Amino acid sequence: MSANWKQRPEGGGRLALWLIRGIARHGGRGIGRALLYPITLYFLLVRGPERRASRAYLARVFGRPVGVWAVARHIHTFAATILDRVFLLGGRFGGFDVRVTGLPELHEVLDRGQGVLLFGSHLGSFEVMRVLAQQRPDYKIRVLLDKAHNPALTQMLDTLNPEIAAGVIDAGQDGPSIAMAIKQATDEGALVALLVDRARPGEPALNAQFLGRDAPFPTAPWLIASALKVPVVLAFGLYQGGHRYHLAFESFSDSIAVPRQQRAQAVLSLIRRYAARLEHHARVAPYNWFNFYDFWGNEDEGSMPSPDDAPRIVAIDHADADAAVQRRTAVRRSA
């Protein structure tokens, strides 16, 4: 199993994904869900690395070896949430029962008008967060996504809601451009949602305990949060079977501070806190884990940076991000 999740090809192909979209939209969710069984069988038989990653993760979260039926259930849960994206991104919420916790605290933070960073993960469905937009349409919601990864699925889902697609911040940009786009959005009072559990190949990361073993977590989200000085809220959209979801918001910090002299140690402390909350929800909903690769990394492939590797972690200064936004605004005005 390769720890480089970006090397894995997109499953199913463009034709299969569009076929599922068409049947789901015109035939209904019931027919779409019936298709999940052959899809699950396909992944179970054909996608060996994902199958092995699932078995390894489930053995870790349950503390015992698991059989093929547990792996099949894991893949089926993932397929179910992918199907539901068609309906959630299309604004068709009527068939879902979404229990929301922590919403008053999130409303309180957003109503300040200063912008919020919403940190999610590949645990459960991030798209169920769209329920928030339905309840408070006055909120500006921007999402950070890598458009180049899974291009067929991205293109298919973008057609469902062009407004959402227009608000996406492309994570495939260079680091300063991403930071600049996020700052511009938070300056406008937007909620910026991003996934913070996966470290890209070559991206600075630090190890934190997760399900009994050190796993690499990216440092960039925490450095951006420190530079922007905006509140950070965690979000977990857990699929509970059938048409039921649990959308949980948790306040993490009103303002993250990372001292320059103890940068690595401070970021590591933040990542450890986050990893503990991620592990808590993974144990509550174990089949919602959708990182189908070797999340921990093979021991013989080397380790990620330790707290002693502070020079490798590059900070994004708030002043630099602000200056970049001002430069872009000046260019637009001159054009």
Automatic annotation (TrEMBL):
Intracellular or extracellular location(s): Cell inner membrane
Task: State the coiled-coil residue ranges.
Answer: none
Q: Specify the superkingdom.
A: Bacteria
Q: Which UniProt keywords apply?
A: Acyltransferase, Cell inner membrane, Cell membrane, Membrane, Transferase
CDD domains tied to this protein: LPLAT_LABLAT-like
| The keyword Acyltransferase is assigned to this record | yes
Looking at the keywords, is Acyltransferase present? yes
Q: What is the first-listed, main subcellular location in coarse terms?
A: membrane
GO terms for MF? acyltransferase activity
PANTHER family reported for this sequence: LIPID A BIOSYNTHESIS LAUROYL ACYLTRANSFERASE, LIPID A BIOSYNTHESIS LAUROYLTRANSFERASE
What is the protein name for this chain? Acyltransferase
